[in-house]
Design a protein that fits this description.
Structural class: mainly beta
Distance between the termini: 42 Å
Strand order of the largest sheet: 1-2-3-4-5-6-7-8-9-10-13
Largest sheet: 11 strands, antiparallel
CATH class of the domain at 76-247: Mainly Beta
Order of helices and strands: EEHEEEEEEEEEEE
């Protein structure tokens, strides 16, 4: 695919008196198709072209009084040429063994939207609760396939996503996290067919530093045993429990 030159320009401003940050960036991108996207049996497409992009984003972040956290609002815009996507399109993906999936280029596409996030220090040194933090992020992404004139949404790209993390660290060696994620409905192809339903999934994890070199951990994924699919027809694990011990040791050199 030859050579390509990309660049990124960033800037920002900080008002220390008010704790206000303003930042922005503009960049270009280039991505050559992977070996799997080109030649994987049944799925690959040897006619794929490299993907090129232009992206712009700007964000405003405001610190809360008394070091209680921050709130951030941002806008992003990206324009793609020959965007590479994995789609479910039985009418186009007809190679033996494809099962209707294949890699395709979208001639012209765009994505723009907003991100709103907050980081809150709920409790620092309460009588019963210490070091309790909350993070929430919401993303609205309006995507469009503008090459065909149909003005349809891009596949696998939800309009709405929400993620949240509740962190608790009562003592330095003990940490616990409750994580939640909502992903809105997505489509399987550029014609906006074969929708994948929205889902909500929750995970719980905890770790304890037994010694300087040893950490015990326990993780419960998919607490409520949600049946959902990240990709159409590809199931995800049911409620799962993991546990173990991590050992870290720096060998003298």
């Amino acid at each position: 695919f030859g050579s390509a030159t990309t660049y990124r320009v960033t800037g920002g401003d900080l008002h220390q008196e008010t704790g206000t940050k303003l930042r922005g960036s503009y960049s270009t991108g280039f991505r050559a198709p992977t070996i799997n996207e080109l030649f994987f049996p049944g799925f690959g497409n040897p006619n794929l072209k490299p993907e090129k992009s232009q992206a712009f984003d700007v964000a405003l972040e405001q610190a809360l009084p008394n070091d209680r956290g921050s709130i951030s609002v941002g806008y992003f815009w990206t324009r793609y040429r020959n965007l590479i996507l994995s789609v479910f399109d039985p009418a186009e993906c007809t190679a033996p063994g494809s099962f209707g999936f294949c890699a395709q280029n979208v001639g012209l596409a765009k994505a723009e939207g907003v991100e709103v996030s907050t980081k809150l220090k709920l409790y620092r040194d309460g009588r019963w609760v210490k070091n309790l933090d909350l993070q929430i992020q919401y993303t609205y992404a309006a995507t469009r396939d503008i090459s065909s004139g149909s003005d349809t949404r891009l596949p696998k790209w939800p309009l709405h996503q929400i993620s949240t993390i509740l962190s608790y660290q009562p003592i330095e060696s003990l940490r616990a996290n409750l994580e939640g994620r909502y992903v809105g409905e997505r489509f399987g192809n550029t014609g906006n067919g074969n929708p994948t339903p929205s889902f909500v999934v929750w995970n719980l994890s905890a770790s304890y530093d037994v010694t300087k070199y040893m950490q015990a951990y326990l993780r419960l994924d998919n607490i409520f045993n949600e049946k959902y699919e990240e990709t159409l027809f590809f199931g995800t694990p049911i409620r799962s429990i993991f546990g173990g011990v991590r050992i870290n040791y720096d060998l003298p050199i």
